[in-house]
Amino acid sequence: MKGTNLGELEEILLLTITAMGKNTYGYAIKENIEKRTGRKNMNLSAVHACLYRLEKKGFLQSEFGEATKKRGGKKKKLFTVTAEGKAAILEAKRIRTSLWDEISVGVAWN
Amino acid sequence: MYPEPPKPARMFIEWLCSDGQFRDIPGDLHEEYIDYHQSKGAFRARFRYIISVFRLIQMFILRDRFKRTPFWFSYKLWRDSIKTGYRSLIKAPLVIGATIGLALGFACCLLIFSFISTELSFDKYHAKSDRIYRLIAQLTLGETPNMIASTNTAPAIALKEELSGVEEGTRISSLSRVPVKYEEQKEFYEDRIYFAESSIFKMFNFPMIKGNPKVALSNMSTMVVTESTAYRYFGNEDPIGKLLTVNGNMDYEIVGVVEDVPQNSHFFFDMLLSFNSLYEANGREAIETWLSPFSYYSYVLLDEGQSHDEVEEYLPFLVDKHLTEEYKDAGISVEYYLQSLEDIHLHSNHLRHEIGVHGDIKYLYIFGTIAFFVLIIASLNFVNLITARFSKRVDDIVIRKVLGAEKGVLITGLLIESLVLCSIAMVVAFVIALLLLPVFSEISQRSLNLDFQQHPLLIQVVPGLTLLVGILSGLYPAFFLSSWKASHLIHKPSNSPHRLNLRKVLVILQFAISMVLIICTGLIFRQQQFLMTKDLGFQKERVLVIPITNAEIRNSIETIKEEIKGQPGIVNVAATSHVMGQRRSGGTYKPEGYDQNQTVMMNAMSVDYDFIETMGMELAEGRNFSKDYPSDPENSILINESAAKEIGWESAVGKKIQPPSREEGKTVIGVVKDFFFKSPHDFVHPTYINFSERPYRALMVKLDAGNLQETIAGIASEWRSFDPNRSMDYYFLDASYDEQYYAEQRMSSVFSYFTLFAVFIACLGLAGMASFVAECRVKEIGIRKVMGASVIQIILMLSKSTVTTLLIAFVIGSPIAYWAIKSWLENFEYRIEIGLDIFLIAAMMAALTALATVVIQSMGVAKSNPVNSLRSE
C-alpha cells in the first residue's frame, strides 16, 4: 500500500464525504464538490478513479445502497471514511497547519 | 419517464463494469446524463456521456490493466495520424485512385447487401411469421413424385380441429384472370384475385383500414379490396357496401378495405372474395371434401412454443385417417409437409403450382460471391497502392524511428491512416450506392433502399466492413514499412520491378478475378443468346392469345373462329386448351404393348384442326387432324417426338395410346417435331395432343404484318357481339413466353455491371502501379533516353511486366472460370459448348484495357525531358 500521503483531490474527497454525512455516492459527491468549491465540469470518471483509489488505500469503505429510477435502476455505492481515512486527513491538516505556522513565524508577510 | 442515454454506450459501460466492485458507475453516469439532459439539452448530455465512457476506459479500466495509458489510445497519435492520412490523400493521385477503387468496391457491396437483405426480409413483416407454415403436398402418380405448393381443401381445417398445437388454419384459392365490373362505369381484368377465409386476417398482417377484420369475408358473396384497388374503381368514394360484378355473373359486396400488400410478400392480392362463395355453385360438400382438387393454398398457425416437427409427425396419420380408399384406387399416394412461411420466397424451387413469382436462394449466393470478389479486388488494390504510396515516405518513417518512435507506435499510426482512408471511401461509397440504387432496383425488380431503419444490419455492416478492410489492408504496409532501418534513409530499398514481391502477386490476383468475371459474363450472355434464338419448334411471333373464360363463348367457338378469320389482317385462328409458356397439365397414359401397370407420364393438350398450322409447327411423321377423317375427333391423337422416344417407338403412326379416362386407346395419326412448350430452359416433355376433349381455354390468332391496332380492334368488336358483358382480354404470345427469361436476363445484366466495376477497379490499380513504377525508375529512364532509347522502347520496357502479369492471371483465372460456368450451365437442359474463343476474347479484352492503361500512364514519363529527372540530387 502506498503511504498515507494524500493528493489534493483525494483530500477534498475525504473532507467532502465527511462533511456530507449521508447519501455519499459517486455522482452526489461530485455535485457536492462542484457546489462547495465552485469548480465546473469536473469529470465524473476522475472522481470515480479517485474514490476507488482511496478505497484501495483503506481510507474509504463502501456498501451498496438503494437503486432509483433516475439511475436506470442501478444501485448506489455509498462511501464512508474509515478510521485510517480520518487519521489521514487529520495528518494532512497537521502538516499544513505546521507549515503555515512556520510561514507566519519565519517570514514577514507583507 | 426519464430520457435514456445512448444505448450502445450504455450497454458497453454496463458490460465493462459488470464485475462486483464497479457496479455503481453506470448508475452514476446515468444520473449525470439525466441532470445534463434537463439543464443543457440532449446533445450535450449525450456528448458528455460518451466522453465519460471513453475517459473511463482510458483512466481507469485500461490503466488498471496496463499501469499507464497504452500508446494506441493516445489522443496525439490519433490526431497526427488522421492528419497525415488526410494530407496523403489530398496530395497523391495514387491514394485518391486507391480510395476511389475501394469506394467502388464498397458501393458494390452495399448494393448487393441491400438486395440480399430485401430478399431475406420476405414475409417477415407478419407478426406471427415464425409460427405460420404452409402445407405442401407430394403427389406420387406411378413412379415420379411431384411436390406441389397447394393442397386440397380439407387438411388445413382438419389439422386445426384434430391437433391442439394448431391455432388456426386458412385457405386461399386463386382465380384465373377475370373481368371485374363496377356498374357500367369501370371494368378491369384482375389477375390478383383470390378466394380467402376470414381467418386470413387473424394469421397474417394485412391491416384493415375500413371494415371489421373479425367478420370480414365470413358471409357469402362479400369481398375485401386493397386501398389502391378501391381507388381504381371508386376514386375517393367510400367503397364499403358497393357491389362489384366478377366474371360477368357474380355480384360481391365490399365489406373491407386493407392496405396494399407490401412488396416483400410471397403473394399479392388486389381482391379477396369470401371463400364460402365457392359453395354457391355446387354446394358446400363439393368443396369441403378430402377429394377436392389440389389447387388450394393452405396455411396453418401453430401455437406459441409448438414445435413444427410434432405437427409434421402427425401429417402421415392425417393421410391414413382420411385419404385411404379413393386415392389408393386411383394409384395416387399423398404426403403432406410443412413449409415455413419465411422459407417460401427463397426455397420454393422444387414446388410446382406456386402461388406467385418467387425468388431463388441461388441468386443470393451468386450475388454474394460477386460482392465478395469485387471487394477482394478493391481491397487488394487498396493494399497495393497504399503500400506503394507509403514506400515513398521512407524519410518520414525512418526519421520518426530515429527520433525514438517505437515500432508499435508506427504500426498503429499507419493503421489509423489506412482506417481514415477507408472511412472516406465508405462515405463516397454511400453516395455512389445511393446514385446507383434506382438502376439496380430496376434490374433486380425489387424496390431497394439503404434505409437504416429497414435494414438494421447496416448499422453493423458499414462500420464493420470499414474496420475490417481498414485494418486488414493496413496491416501489410504497416508491418512492411515499420521494419525499415535507419540505414534505409541513405540506401533506399530497391523498387525493382523484376522482383516478384507481394505487390505483384496482388496485381496478378486482381486480374485473375477480373478474368474470371469477364469470362463468366461472356458465357452467360452467349448462353442467353443461344436460348433466345433457339428454334422453339413453333412460331411465337405475331400470335395474339385471347383467353376464353366463360361457357357461352366456349360453346360457340366454331362460329367465333369463322367470324374472326373473316376479318382483314388475320392469317389463321386456332383454339387450344393450353397456351405455350403457361401452365401445363398431364397425366399417365398407357401405350400399346405396355403391361397392365406400366404407364408413361405425358403432358396433355387439346387443340383443333388449325392449331398445328397456326403455330407453324411441323410434322415429323404422319398427318394432322383433318376434317376429311370423320373419326379424328373421337379416335385420333398426335404425339411429339419425345413421346415416341420415351415410349420407345421407331414409328408411332398407327399405334394406340390409352388415356386415363378411357377404356380403349386412341390411334396416333402423326408425330409433331419437338417443341418447347414451357421454355427452352426445360427439356421437352413427352406430349399427348388430343382433339378437343378438354374445353378450350384460348384462341390463338395469327396476324399478318399489317396494322396491329386496327386488326385487334376489329377482333374486339366482333368479340363484343358474342359476349356483351365482358370486353375482350388479349396478349401477345411472344411477350408472355419471353417473360420467363427475365430472371436470367436480369441476372446476367447485374453480372455484367459488377464485372465492369471489377475491371475498372483493377485497371485503376494497374494505372496506379504503372505510374508508380515509372516514377521509381525515372532516373533509369532518363539515362536510357540520354543513351538514345526512343519513347516507344521505353514504353515497351515499362509494359513488358504487365504482359507477364496478365499471362499468369489468365492461367490462374481460366480454370476457375471454366469450373464456375460449367456448374452454372448444368442448370440448363440445352446449353452451349464452352468454347476456347471466349477465353481468348476475354484475355484480349483484359490485355487491351490493361496495356492501354499502362501505356497512357508511362507515356508521361517516357516523353519527359531527361534533364528534368537527372539534374536534381
Q: What do you see in this structure?
A:
- The complex is a heterodimer of chains A (110) and B (873).
- Chain A is of the alpha+beta class.
- Chain A has four helices and two strands, in the order αααββα.
- Chain A has helices at residues 8-20, 26-37, 44-57, 83-106, and strands at residues 60-67, 75-81.
- Chain A has a two-stranded antiparallel ribbon with strand order 1-2.
- Chain A is elongated and about 55 Å long.
- The termini of chain A are far apart.
- The model of chain A has no long low-confidence stretch (mean pLDDT 82).
- The N and C termini of chain B lie far apart (72 Å).
- In chain B, the strands form three sheets. In chain B, strands 1, 2, 3, 4, 5, 6, 7, 8, 9, 10, 11, 12 and 13 form a 13-stranded mixed β-sheet that branches.
- In chain B, helix 14 packs parallel to helix 26 (742-776) and helix 18 crosses helix 29.
- The A-B interface holds A 25-27, 30, 43-46, 48-49, 52, 64, 67, 69-72, 74-77 and B 2, 4-5, 10, 21-32, 34, 52, 55-56, 59-60, 63.
